[in-house]
Specification:
With about 300 residues, the chain is an all-alpha fold. The protein has a domain of about 110 residues: Tetratricopeptide repeat domain (Serine Threonine Protein Phosphatase 5, Tetratricopeptide repeat). About 60% of the residues lie in helices and about 0% in strands. It contains 15 helices and two strands. The protein has a two-stranded antiparallel sheet. The longest helix is centred in the N-terminal third of the chain and has 26 residues.
């Protein structure tokens, strides 16, 4: 049995959704599946009626979806910040049910990975990077090159626009022995990592030449840079410390260890090391480094305080 909701119908179409009595939803509550189907129809029709102001019913529905989306995303981010991965997963699933987006699929992948379910996490990341629909939420129009890459089955950078999510996906792939795909994702996202310039790129080795541990260390450094330029110095230092733990003898990881330490609030620095340890990391970077890494470390050492 079907029930029609004419108050939510657009001009010239009649939208039908399953009756609440046929589902597990409480009486009078429309199922998330039905709401998603309705959202799809509304979105498709909006392209042909964009010149017309929405009706009060349409606007009310849109406002309701947006409010639900905002609440779910805010709660998900808060839970994720505190490491409550199970709760964060639930919130981001609610956000996707309200309105699917590439970034929320990537956040969902992060929450699932935090619970140790790598296969499911990879699938969520892939939905965000390869498959997530563009619901007109500000994603850029793909270039001709990106269209060609999409036809060839390559990832579309314009979907999930957060390089941090791409790097976390690359790290997960590497940790599950999918190194070739991990390198491809890393190389695609690396040039748009905040703080990366032509000069800093030359400090990083070619990812395809690195063993998995060295590759993962480079990913952690990129994640640290994402956090640094996102205003999260403590979070950034955690990533730089992970990189140094993976490759303690690397000039690059030692350089960025001190780089992150210097950007911490003085009261937080002791959590990650003493001034002597930070200076020793720079000295090691100078001793073992070559080219740009050696020069950058030497410059930092001269101004160390």
């Amino acid at each position: 049995m079907k029930s029609t909701l004419p108050c939510l119908a657009l001009m010239c179409i009649s939208l039908t959704i399953p009756c609440a009595a046929q589902s597990d939803q409480p009486s009078g509550v429309v199922s998330p599946t039905a709401l998603r189907a309705l959202a799809d129809q509304l979105f498709k029709q909006s392209k042909s009626i964009h010149h017309r102001h929405p009706s009060k019913e349409e606007q009310a529905y849109s406002d309701s979806v947006q409010a639900r989306l905002n609440a779910a995303e805010t709660a998900g981010e808060e839970a994720l910040t505190h490491g409550y991965f199970s709760a964060a997963e639930s919130h981001f699933r609610d956000a996707i049910n309200a309105r699917p987006s590439a970034d929320d699929y990537c956040k969902l992948g992060e929450t699932i990975a935090g619970q140790g379910r790598a296969v499911e996490a990879i699938e969520a990341y892939r939905k965000g990077i390869y498959e997530a629909p563009d619901y007109g939420m500000g994603h850029s129009v793909p270039t001709a090159e990106e269209v060609l890459e999409a036809q060839q089955g390559k990832p579309k950078m314009h979907l999930c626009q957060q390089p941090e999510s791409w790097m976390k996906y690359a790290l997960l792939l590497s940790q599950t022995n999918q190194q070739v795909e991990a390198i491809r994702i890393y190389q695609k996202a690396f040039p748009v990592v905040p703080g990366i310039t032509e000069r800093t790129i030359t400090r990083f080795p070619d990812a395809s030449t690195l063993a998995p541990r060295g590759f993962q260390a480079s990913v952690h450094i990129a994640l640290g840079l994402c956090a640094t330029f996102g205003g999260g110095s403590d979070k950034a230092m955690t990533e730089f410390a992970k990189a140094r733990q993976l490759e303690p003898a690397s000039s690059l990881t030692n350089y960025y260890y001190e780089y992150g330490w210097q950007r911490l609030a003085p009261a937080v620095r002791a959590k990650y090391g003493t001034p002597q340890q930070a200076k020793a990391a720079l000295q090691k970077a100078v001793k073992m480094g070559k080219g740009d890494v050696k020069l950058a470390a030497a410059k930092a050492l001269k101004s160390f305080s």
